[in-house]
Amino acid sequence: MRNNLIISLIFLMVSNQISAQQIASDVIQEQIAKYKNDLRGPYKDIRWFCTDGSVRQPKDPCPDNIGPGNQHARYKDDVEKLAVSNHIFLGQILAYTKTEAFWDAPASHSRLKQYQLDKYLRGVDDGWINRKSQFYRGAIQSEDEEAWGIDFYKWLLAKDDVIQQNYFLVRQSLKDIPHNGDDNLAQLMRSQSKVLSDAYLPFMDLRVKIHAQPEVNDIEKVKTFKAKHVTKLSVNQIKLIDELIITMTTFFKPIDLTAVLQKATLIKDTTFGKAFKVYVSEQHETSKTSDLIQNTAEVLALLKKAVLDEKRPLARLQLLDISLKLEEVIFKNAPLWEPKTVEQLVDKICYLGMATAAAGYIEQHEWEALNLTLSGNTTNDTTLGDLTSVLQNGRSLVEWSSGMVKATYQETVNTYTTFEPLAYGFIDDKIRGSIALHLGKAVGELGDFIANESALTNKVLNIPNQSTIRGLNPGYAFGELVVVAGSPDNIEVSSNKIYIFQRPPADLKPIAGIATVSEGNMVSHVQLLARNLGIPNAALSDQNLADLMTYSGQKVFYAVSNKGNVIIKTEQDMSEEERALFVKKERRNEKIEVPVETIILNQNNVLNLRSVDASDSGKICGPKAANLGQLKKMFPEQVVEGLVIPFGIFRDHMNQEMPDQNKTYWQFLEAMFNEAIAMETKGIAEEEIEHYQLRQLETLRAAIKKMPLKTEFIAQMETDFKTVLGQDLGAIPVFLRSDTNMEDLKEFTGAGLNLTLFNVVDKSKILEGIKDVWASPYTERSFKWRQKYLLNPENVFPSILVIPSVDVDYSGVLITKGLTSGNDQDLTIAFSRGAGGAVDGQSSETYLLKDTGGYQFLAPSRERYYNSLPITGGTLKQSATFEQPILNAENIADIKQLAKTIRESMPNATDTEYEGAYDVELGFKDNKLWLFQIRPFVENKKALSSTYLQSITPIVNTNKAIALSKKI
Fold first, then answer.
1. What is the model's pLDDT at position 916?
2. Residue 792 shares a structural domain with residue 823
3. Domain of 537: which CATH number?
4. 243 in a domain, yes or no?
5. Which site in 71, 314, 384, 935 is 20 to 30 Å from 50, CA atoms measured?
6. At residue 11, does pLDDT exceed 50?
7. Are 682 and 790 contained in the same domain?
8. How far apart are CA 141 and CA 69, in angstroms?
9. Which residue positions does the secretion signal occupy (predicted)?
């Protein structure tokens, strides 16, 4: 499941070396521009490369006595330098490359992925860096490249672990690496249509059609378009259309399965080979497209297992080539299967889903967790609830398959996008070239049908395919719509705007509303904050995001109901009731007050975690330490030892003189808030007041980071590390977790707003880290969230929880409530590999554990990298694969038992009246459960009970009978 530690260390060293010497993106961009206009492109010259290692001039072939050798180009010096400095490989010549180097396992197979991306860019950009060197004779010899490809797959497919862990990538690579003379016609068709629409804008509508739903009758549409526009087209544009027509005609020719069978000489006597022979024979007699697709999907599923069972590399290669042909059969014929009834539509979804899984777009265990059938039905009817279950699972499969493409290629695409923006289209091209394209359309049709039957309909402006949108958190908002197609990390957000992201940023500042293509996971800090504050939050598709780009910059009303239906409408379309929701109210009535009357600020000693419990929360320390101390009493073997630096030590240090201010740190803070109140009294604009406060806090934060720590405090830390944690300060890696009195209030969670330092070991870094954690509540993000919700944000006091690091295999979050079911007796869990799992918005393995027994698999992990915690400190990036689930049955049983104990014992142990759900952070090391945090799970009661939200939430009768024969 993970790479060898040595490989990871090599990768880390390589990464560090690269990052220290990297060539800037703008310089690479200039290089690429030169290569495009260079008759030799990225190549320097042509040479003969002989078997004995000698290199000869192009007109001086290798003598027979030393072997035939290969002739091909050499890279320009700048190209070779770029490979060393940035690990970027341009214009790769396979015959010039060692197989192991090309597989590039320590760098997550980057070279192979770059080769695929290079091919895509050549297709959409007239040769890209080879624009003028495409016909540089002798630079690349196709027969040598093909021979190299066969040798590469002989080497690669001999490895069982490669097939098991990288099935999707290996199978995709066959579309691009020459090995049998085939071309990737589907990609060529999409590339040619894009080039044509870029050259002649009126072709855009046809391009969209060819990209979204390619069908054989599109050939006639292209011919008609040419006839209609011929007088306006240039000679080159006519040539482009003619080339596209030829490609489309070739692509839509029926696949000669008999020829495929005849080529599969190595597998003809195997179990699969015999089954494939029967399949080929039967397809000649099959006239119904639905039967063809069903039969092909079943054979494709058999083939995937056969690849794993087969051990001969070249036999595996033949199987994988057949797999691609079978996928092509389904891709071409899926639009021709036009279901007329509910039953036929569900069948289509089921078999397209089966084929998607068999093609590697999701893992086998993920496919087995989904149910896309109504097989339990013994009558001619089904229920709306059962159909909705098929819809939800179908949506999941589409999302997970897109997630596989992104997880595999996103890192490479991100690297290339910094110097070649066209690279951004590669992932979309991969998704559109998959069966999941047609699966998504069928799932959308079922969603539309269910929406009509249940009245649970999205009303999102006038964009198509709205059934792929689903609400996550209820709430409503009004503001400017901002659609962000690229990375959100450098976007400066505004608290009165509504954002549509590809993925949620991990350090999100307050916003009015959010929707994301990649939702991360439902228990991340971002999701919990959105849920807590009643911020409407939804998930949508890539296509939905693209369609919403038209509305970016407009003011819209956005609402998510308690059942997850979504409304977005323009300002002029808002009803009076919706306008009334945003009438200016007195802000202070919306806020809560942090209780400070019981806080104890004269506790100046470092505390043993064992000496605190839940009753100390908000008094001498924050809830993290207090509740973990409580858990230490309840689960002594599953909670580490720890130290607590109480509020009093922070307050004592804040009484020191602040440099250059003639006042203490605390007096500086008080003066800032007093001035802000005075400014408000004078009627100064809220934005100006906030700007003043943020500037003052920046000054304070910088000063705290340089604050001298008192000698007696350092001495106590050294003593307590030895007596409580068992080793000297600086000899054991620890976590430093900010733990303020403004977290886990009755109506405010504060999840993830302040700093946690991972796996710090060096003594000086631990002491510096303490000051960094003390300063973190004064960051812009933390302050803005407090300002939005708290009446007295100035009364924030940070304590610090210091606990030894546990290098867990995987970690995550348990919520003792069903977030998707709404059932207080269910459990929601989300886990990612390594440390810090699920809380920072990672794409996590998520389950709903039902109180009636069993569980629902909600989402797989799609995080390619995760953090491990070496004893030397810091974090080490490890590479993950997805063929096995993260949690096992034993882990799930342990989590259920933990939740049962928490529910039964926590209220009594803490002597509180709290009856709600808990948010628990935990991890597993060698299948042993470790507990790291527990806090109340806070939801926004106002959003959940809003009269308006209730009014837009239809009552759905899930028992409503639906005839399977009903027309769709």
1. 84
2. no
3. 3.50.30
4. no
5. 314
6. no
7. yes
8. 12
9. 1-20
Residue 879, in any domain of the structure: yes
Cβ contact 322:260 at 8 Å: yes
CA 649, CA 656: separation in Å to the nearest integer?
Answer: 12
Dump strand ranges (E) for 719-826. Answer: 734-740, 756-760, 798-804, 810-815
- pLDDT band, residue 745 (cuts 50/70/90): low
Radius of gyration for the alpha carbons in the chain, expressed in angstroms and rounded: 31
Span 604-630, average pLDDT: 92
- 140 and 105 in a common domain: yes
pLDDT in tens, 110-145: 999 999 999 999 988 989 999 988 778 888 888 889
Tokens of 652: 């004592």
Tokens, residue 99: 């197989």
In this prediction, residue 504 carries a pLDDT of 72
Cβ–Cβ under 8 Å, residues 212 and 432: yes
Given 161, 183, 205, which residue is the final one in a domain?
183
Residues 726 and 820 both lie in one domain = no
Tokens 């940070």 belong to: 798
Q: How distant, in Å, are the alpha carbons of 42, 89, 408, 430, 706 from that of 191?
A: 22, 22, 21, 12, 56
Answer yes or no: are the C-beta atoms of 320 and 162 closer than 8 Å: no
Strands 798-804, 827-833: parallel, antiparallel or unpaired by DSSP?
A: unpaired
Residues 702, 778: Cα–Cα separation, whole Å: 10
Distance CA 304, CA 297 (A): 11
- The mean per-residue pLDDT over the stretch 418-438 comes to 89
φ/ψ of 373, rounded to 5, equals -120, 165
The residue among 420, 455, 490 that closes a domain is 455
Residue from 79, 688, 32 nearest 420 by CA: 32
235 CB-contact burial (10 Å; exposed 0-12 / middle 13-18 / buried 19+): exposed
Cα–Cα distance between 896 and 196 in angstroms, integer? 57
The number of distinct structural domains making up the chain is 5
Confidence (pLDDT) at 949: 85
C-beta of residue 361 within 8 angstroms of C-beta of residue 401: yes
Band the pLDDT of 379: cuts 50, 70, 90: low
- What's residue 491's pLDDT? 81
Residue 584 has pLDDT above 80, yes or no: no
Same domain, 653 and 766: yes
> Do 445 and 968 form a contact (C-beta atoms < 8 A)?
yes
State how far the Cα of 724 lies from the Cα of 708, in Å rounded to an integer. 25
pLDDT of residue 377: 55
CATH, residue 739: 3.30.1490.20
Exposure string of 727-765, with b = 16+ CB inside 10 Å and e = fewer, is: eebbebbbbbbbbbbbbbbeebbbbbbbbbbbbbbbbeb
Show the tokens assigned to 208.
């969209």
pLDDT tens-digit profile of 479-536?
999 999 877 777 888 888 999 988 777 666 778 898 988 655 555 556 666 666 678 9
In terms of Cα–Cα distance, which of 692, 700, 703, 815 is closest to 749?
815
CA 455 to chain centre: 31
Both 385 and 519 in one domain: the answer is no
User: What range defines the domain where residue 910 resides?
Assistant: 806-940
Considering the domain architecture, whether residues 567 and 698 belong to the same structural domain is answered as no
Structure tokens at 934: 């527990």
Model pLDDT, residue 781: 75
In a domain, 641, yes or no: yes
User: Has residue 841 been placed in a domain?
Assistant: yes
Q: Is the pLDDT of residue 747 over 60?
A: no
What was the pLDDT predicted at 3?
42
Rounded distance between C-alpha atoms, residue 558 and residue 121, angstroms: 38
- Tell me the pLDDT band of 6, cut-offs 50, 70 and 90: very low
Q: Which residues pair with 801 in a beta bridge?
A: 644, 737
Tokens representing 211 are 């990209």
The 10s digit of each residue's pLDDT in 296-344 is 999 999 999 999 999 999 999 999 999 999 999 999 999 999 999 999 9
> Is the domain of 800 the same as that of 813?
no
Query: Phi and psi (nearest 5°) for 499?
Result: -115, 135
